[in-house]
Amino acid sequence: MTIRSYRNISPTFDNSVYIDDSAVLVGDIELGEQSSIWPLVAGRGDVNVIRIGRRTNVQDGSVLHVTRKSRQNPTGFPLIIGDDVTVGHKCMLHGCELGNRILVGMGAIIMDGAVVQDDVFIGAGSLVAPNKILESGFLYVGNPALKKRRLKDSEMAFLKQSAVNYVELSREYLEQ
């Protein structure tokens, strides 16, 4: 794996975290326990911070980035991802905030300042516009992402199960 410092700050994580050898993580990134970063993920915590919660997985080819601080936006936009989140293949998460138990479908893009509350499904290929708030308990789809319907009980259960599945898979990779 490629773990690089930026301005003497390096990514931090414990030995329960799986990071694929082809992933690149740079700068001020913190990974929570039992999280996983899969092949070809690029994360740049250079001009702001990236915080990833526990049991969260970021799948193949996804990009994690932030927005710098400025006079117009003194805090910039860090990237904050909660616990038990599944980020599908080839997603772009840019300076947004994701709560807990979220599934971000393949190829989705979530832009600066967007906030995704807990227990949300974001459909594959969806675009979450800057500063948009996605309410807890719903499925969002489309470009731009629109609220489609309330999540079913089985879908709510799957949000947590998806994270558990990736924790188990990452254990197998760590044991090789």
UniProtKB/TrEMBL annotation:
Alphabetized InterPro entries for the sequence: Hexapep (IPR001451), LbH_gamma_CA-like (IPR047324), Transf_Hexapept/Carb_Anhydrase (IPR050484), Trimer_LpxA-like_sf (IPR011004)
GO terms of molecular function: transferase activity
Keywords, comma-separated and alphabetical: Transferase
A Pfam family of this chain: Hexapep_2
Presence of the UniProt keyword Transferase in the record: yes
UniProt keyword annotation of Chaperone present: no
Protein name according to UniProt: Transferase hexapeptide domain-containing protein
